[in-house]
Amino acid sequence: MRVRTCEICGKRVSRYVCQECGREVCQFCLEPNTWVCLDCYHSLKQETPVLEVFPWSTPFKLFLLSFLLILIGTIFTLIASVLPGTFSIGAIIFLGPIPIILGAGPHLIWVIILAFALTILGIVAFITLRKRAG
Ligand SMILES: [Zn+2]
Ligand SMILES: [Zn+2]
Fold first, then answer.
1. How far is Cα 29 from Cα 11, in angstroms, rounded to an integer?
2. Quick one: which ligand is closest to 15's CA?
3. 47 near 39, Cβ under 8 Å?
4. Mean pLDDT, the chain, as a whole number?
5. Which residues surround ligand 2, an ion (CB under 5 A)?
6. From the CA of 12, how far away is ligand 1's center (Å)?
7. What is the pTM of this model?
8. Smallest Cα–Cα separation from 114: which of 87, 85, 90?
9. Of 4, 33, 92, 110, which residue is the least packed, with the fewest Cβ within 10 Å?
10. Helix 58-82 crosses helix 108-133 at what angle (to 10 degrees)?
11. pLDDT tens-digit readout, 64-118
12. Residues around the ion ligand 1 (C-beta < 5 A)
């Protein structure tokens, strides 16, 4: 019985066959993920460059804009809540163009009015920027 040796290193017993060139290779000369010998693996790796694409699409920009609006709204409501004699908490959450107003405290009505005014301002800015983008 003839023992086949690896056609790459010629030292170890070959157990696998390269799926690219058909050479018999040992376990150390085989790339386990691609099932090809190391020679083919390196040449294939050079032939197929890894493409990394990060698309800055329009939905992402709109998401970023609404996130910015949430941040501005939160800052304004925080300022309103730390005003003397006011212990109200309010926040506007934008789900796309739909605003959700959250609030708690004795002066909630003023926080809501402020939040509402900011929401309208935000929507106007949102539409204006959207028109400018498109
Ligand atoms: Zn080998
Ligand atoms: Zn090969």
1. 11
2. 1
3. no
4. 76
5. 18, 20-21, 37, 40
6. 6
7. 0.36
8. 90
9. 33
10. 160
11. 777 787 777 777 777 766 666 555 555 656 665 566 666 666 666 676 677 778 7
12. 6, 8-9, 12, 26, 29
